[in-house]
Amino acid sequence: MLKKKQDISFFFNPKSIAVIGASPMPGKLSYVILENLKKAGFLGAIYPVNPKYSSINNLRCYKSITETNDNIDIAVIVLPAPVVAESLKSAGKKVKGAIIVSGGFKEIGDEGVRLEEEIKKIAEKNGIRIMGPNCMGIYDTISRVDTFLITSDRIGRPNKGGISIISQSGSFAGTIMDELAYEGIGVARVISYGNRVDVGETDCLEFLAGDGATKIIALYIESVDDGRRFVDAASRCTRKKPVIAVKVGKRGAGVYAARSHTGAMAGRHEIYSAAFKKAGIIEVAGYEGLKDACRVLNVYKLSKGKRVLIITDGGGIGVSISDACENSGLEVTGLSDDVRKSLTSKLPHFCAVGNPIDLTGSVTDEYYITALKEGLKDKFDIVIAAVLWGPPQLTERLVDKLIGFKTKHNIPIVICSPGGKFTKKINSIFEGKGIPVFSTPESAVRAATILAS
Amino acid sequence: MLKKKQDISFFFNPKSIAVIGASPMPGKLSYVILENLKKAGFLGAIYPVNPKYSSINNLRCYKSITETNDNIDIAVIVLPAPVVAESLKSAGKKVKGAIIVSGGFKEIGDEGVRLEEEIKKIAEKNGIRIMGPNCMGIYDTISRVDTFLITSDRIGRPNKGGISIISQSGSFAGTIMDELAYEGIGVARVISYGNRVDVGETDCLEFLAGDGATKIIALYIESVDDGRRFVDAASRCTRKKPVIAVKVGKRGAGVYAARSHTGAMAGRHEIYSAAFKKAGIIEVAGYEGLKDACRVLNVYKLSKGKRVLIITDGGGIGVSISDACENSGLEVTGLSDDVRKSLTSKLPHFCAVGNPIDLTGSVTDEYYITALKEGLKDKFDIVIAAVLWGPPQLTERLVDKLIGFKTKHNIPIVICSPGGKFTKKINSIFEGKGIPVFSTPESAVRAATILAS
Fold first, then answer.
1. pTM for the full predicted model
2. N or C, fewer C-beta in 10 Å, chain A?
3. Which domains does chain A possess?
């Protein structure tokens, strides 16, 4: 057995990184990794290793890892699967951890399983912690490490922020990262651990639990390695910060697909759901849920309860949101008589005073603020403001008014604005000010459901 | 009783439109309607009616509708609720149909109910068909009628196309319209009928069933007026063209919200679902489903079966799609031995040959075409191609290759590409060529589910 409980924090604070199988050819993955490390601004030593070259891009290239004078914190291995074991052997005890990005292991069948077993043995013998194989490794805005083997023009790199992502799937991690970058949402650490011969979700959770830079954890898993240890670690983690998880490979086709992806045995979904619940993990149904969770938790804290006040100027959208809330266990509770009376006296007669509060197409900016002020005299935990921008008397000024209100009253206001050109222009103003806008009733409710978890 | 079964086609082919309560003031709704009618290019006669003015924007303004020499096909009534009845009375038998956009009726309670009853009686007596009150009326790219009271800079107007929308909610109709305009998807007729004192979903379905311009019908309803008649009309309609419906006001909060929106008694959702099924209507869960349906049916026909082939270069996304397919009743059936063998011989060894076919991050454009050609030798009804654009050897040329393949082989290929800047650039190339791209696994599967309905 590998020493699973050993600390893996050196992966997130390395002083030296070797790239085994480095290449000076721009088309090669190992070249991309060297470039990305530079672009990320990694401040430690970088050692390209390849017997064929003496220098790559102004860096001395080493014939073998033993030739370097330094101890290596991370060796990124970009070699064909059959020679990976050999490279670990030659590294001896010089290397603390290896990120094996190469594919061609358990995910391709028997021969790959054998290669993985070999790697496991050598790593254990030499005391090397392994991330991968068949992974992207680490994108880290704190340590400035970037081993993702895709150029940043294809997959954007988010700025520094509070979200950390743990993903068995590299493409899933990369895609979410790309979306967050596009939306201007920052991350702390993104970890893709692939086939998990050693480092897995639980090691990462344990590290991120104590990581000051990480405020929120998003987890994509196809399977869990050691259920009991996972629940223990996750329970400790969720006491400190929210952990959102999507478990894929749920049943039938998905289970099959997961096996041929990272060789994971996906297992019965109900067992996972129960374990998540026990550990205080917020489970989301899929990609959309994980994305919505990242967007909303980047701005708002978890709320204490499930009571949602819906304010809108579009009746049909209000009904749709009520439906979706009802469907996901949120409480769209009615207004008290007092609040109803004061709203009736302060809003024009054509507004529908209830929950939702429907301000109708004759709405002005100020109606929204009145509805918020009065409506929140009843104890609601979350507001969904479904602002349709058709009504002519709604102006851009509402953006700052809503943001001001949320800040002053410290209440999460989930903005829902579906629509076309004009709406998207306003939405980008919100987002420029750091407030996410959800462009369908369903996504707004997914976000509110996360907050109420 | 109103003569419900009377033909309402004159609403969609009017020769003359009067705007009752017309105003020369740009802030007023009636002014917006006059402007929109002009912008839409309505070729018939337009009669502004308002005793206060003698002309509005170079059109003669009439003191009353009786002053016009013409018979009026549509009178758009933009007056305060309490005087609407009076205006219908004075119209006498000169008017075939009225679109009452004014709010302040059943949706606001007892007094509104009384006003509505009055309108009903007068309309019946004078043989006037009524659309509304509390509605947007008609946006029609064939007859060039536009009674939506919102300017096109706020709510975009789609070009001519095959989708027709029937919506109880005006804001829902406007928002979907705005989204379709933004995506370059065309519509035939958009109808918002609001409180339904007379014309409702069934009249509209009956008209659209025989309407050559309408290829697909999207329906938003809070309640149905006459269940049996609705099912009969819808059954006739679905034999000719697909009808998609979202029923809101499902339970609890949603039911309450629907009542205060258009005064509709929403009723038990299960009854609606059963009726939809009986009538051959494809039910979607909400706004997202309706939007996805419009996008995919704008390009693809309903398929004969439910068998889905998933092809991807991102394993995790492939697993997510498999899960979502499984969840919505699609069949992700395995490949036959023959197809598996030929794929194994034609694709590199690192590809996972199954369903999904995972081409991995080493994918090239050509792998996708190989996977399609070979994979479709097994009988699949729909392909979901989840193209992640990270891999460096994928190029823009794949767009035309995929479109060419779909055209040649007449198979619906649902493209799923989540991601940031680079991905969105490629997606817009697809969409410029009329092919929708779905940006989450879930939305792609919603679209495939519609096709398989």
1. 0.94
2. N
3. 9-297 (3.40.50.261), 308-451 (3.40.50.261)
